[in-house]
Prior knowledge:
The structure holds two protein chains of two kinds.
Chain A: H1 2-9, H2 20-46, H3 48-55, H4 60-85, H5 89-119, H6 128-159, H7 169-194
Helix pairs in contact in A: 2-3, 2-6, 2-7, 4-5, 4-7, 5-6, 6-7
Chain B: H1 2-26, H2 32-51, H3 59-79
Helix pairs in contact in B: 1-2, 2-3
Amino acid sequence: MESENIVAKEGEISYPPGGILIWMLIVLEIFTFLGASLVFMYYRGIEWNEFNEFRSYLNPVVGTANTIILIISGYFMANSLHKLRANDTNAASIQILLGLLLGVLFLVVKGIEFYQKLEIGIGLDYNTFFTFYWLMTGFHFIHVLFGVGLLSFMYKAVKNKKYNSNNMFDVESSATYWHMCDLIWILIFPVLYLI
Amino acid sequence: MKEIRKNTWMLIALIVLIVLNYFFAENQMENAVYFIVIVSAVKFLGVTFQFIETKHAHFFWKALSVVFVGIYLIGVLVLY
């Protein structure tokens, strides 16, 4: 059975969870955002006072709430794979839907935050701090937006029973992509909002 | 299911860490940056190993996840 093959492949270097291609993407993305976080910290050292002042323009409560929203969303996606492995496609689709809705909630909260910044004239070229803010959170926003589209497609497909325990590679890859959005946020949130 | 129960415990732990991170940052405690960055590293590994199930993957992918976290930890703390 295909599922047995997948289990057998687990633990092989060429078969990370979700497949090798999605992990190539993860490695590139994490290095990009990791690099951005470190360059941000470097400039923070140069413009210490300015960065501390402008950090107070960000709301850490909203950032923390969004972190929790994204983590819970990832939890539902992780559970959806276990439900699908048990061939419980209805439960799996519900878990994906919950993850998807929380992803949308993240985008709404982030969208409001972006709008509030733009409303008072804080754009990409406002200062160094906000150039980093817009680039890092903006690119992350686009990743989540793409992820929401992907989960919408997976939700429909799983609900229509196009995937099952023997055929769930696409769902696994999509879930891994979604977790990548979690990981990126885990890296950029503390340096922008907390430190 | 056993794995879903593990996911739930991991979720609870992650939420507690996220909230603790917020309070450490808001109270501007001495050396809060160390706590914040270490907690973020733990969150990263929690998501990678439990939610992405890297715990079942080849050693290379586990090591790569730890390397990412190591670069982040050292980089942020050195540059702070």
